[in-house]
Amino acid sequence: MADDRSPDPSLAGDSPTALEDGIAGLFDDYLTGFNDADADTLIDCFYLPATIWQMDKGYVFDDEEDLAENIEALLEALDKENISFSEFSVVSAHISGTTALVTLDWRQESSDGESVFEFTCHYHLIFDGDDWRIAMIVNEQ
Q1: Please, is 10 exposed, middle or buried when counting C-beta atoms within 10 Å of its C-beta (0-12, 13-18, 19+)?
Q2: pLDDT tens digits, one per residue of 9-55
Q3: Which of 49, 79, 97, 134 has its CA 20 to 30 A from that of 114?
């Protein structure tokens, strides 16, 4: 049985690479949100409700207001740590229908180029009919 929500290969340029490009675009936007300290850009990357697991606790964000509070607090904490640049490398990725699992290794550095934080995040993505969005993050620290 066909799933009407599945990414349409014809819309994705008839290739799995186009689907991967969509996911890469999501993470490019996500990275830009961190490097520009732009909460709105980060919020746009999520599919609500979203769950974020960090420090062995799960937090569910049902609406943009709740998510915005969390993201703004995170951006403030990064600013206090003098984080001025973030980057990631892809560890693994798997696409299956309207979901994808992606693992990224992150590195965040201060304005003098010193590495301050290094960690791994696992992302569960959902294709919302137009774009890939983050539904859940599990942060390993």
Answers
A1: exposed
A2: 444 443 557 678 899 999 999 999 999 999 999 999 999 999 999 88
A3: 134
